[in-house]
Amino acid sequence: MTLQQLKYVITVAETGTITEASNQLFISQPSLTNAIHELEKEMNIVIFNRTNKGISLSKEGEGFLGYARQVLEQAAILEDKYKGSGGGKKQFCVSTQHYSFAVNAFVDLIKEYGQEEYDFSLRETQTYEIIEDVARLRSEIGILFLNDFNQTVINKILKSYDLEFHLLFIAKPHVFISRSHPLAEKKVITNQELEIYPYLSFEQGEHNSFYFSEEIFSESERKKNIRVRDRATLFNLLIGLNGYTVCSGVIDKKLNGSEIIAVPLADESDMRIGYITHRKGIISRLGNSYLEALMKYTTGGQNL
């Protein structure tokens, strides 16, 4: 097994075709195919399924691909340290629920390591996709929350995927509303007071279960529900419709604007916000730096 073979496999997986991969790698299609066959034979696995319609990554190939990315990252670190070459293009991916502190930490990471070449990904996505991304080693780190309602289901899924949850901080649930909302002057807001207003939440696709929701009390029946896919849309609707959502109370005015405020919500259980990693994975230098940045922004849930 060589580093070159690992690069070949990753490129084929990312492009989805031998033709496109061979063009990017400046290698003939037969040579690329043979190199992958030799690697599969040596490792005694099938990395790609071949059909008349093309190729696709096999289940064991998904796991192999995750480890291959880590090997290449470690090789880049060695080159950076001993050859002074900058280690080539740096790659890193994190998957997260919609948290401003996750974005801030990502910005810090790029400022520290973003040199001439890098390929970083920040996936603000659905809860189940976060779990799958880390399980398949597409992302080193996933950020989500647990509470009394969802922890049994989420922990069971994490265990089945061989994932671990690491606590960052404990947050008191807050209602996010516009500064002009009729309840904006309240010191604490109750569920009863919110009943007449539109409830905004992030949709969870085919896994749109209460247990995968980003919102703290989504098991409650709401009269007016609006589901969205992105943060900007949610905040625009909060302002335009006097809507509300429920989250950690950690808010960044630079990212979310000064028109959104957080007011404590009465009588709801705490949110245990943390990150997940794969038990068999190795946290890279970039991953550790990202976690350090997260700690800076989430200590006590303050300074955001």
Automatic annotation (TrEMBL):
Keywords: DNA-binding, Transcription, Transcription regulation. Residues 1-58 form the HTH lysR-type domain. GO terms for cellular component: protein-DNA complex. SUPFAM superfamilies: Periplasmic binding protein-like II, Winged helix' DNA-binding domain. InterPro entries: LysR_HTH_N (IPR000847), LysR_subst-bd (IPR005119), WH-like_DNA-bd_sf (IPR036388), WH_DNA-bd_sf (IPR036390). It comes from the Bacteria. Belongs to the LysR transcriptional regulatory family. PANTHER family: HCA OPERON TRANSCRIPTIONAL ACTIVATOR HCAR, TRANSCRIPTIONAL DUAL REGULATOR HCAR-RELATED. This is LysR family transcriptional regulator. It comes from Variimorphobacter saccharofermentans.
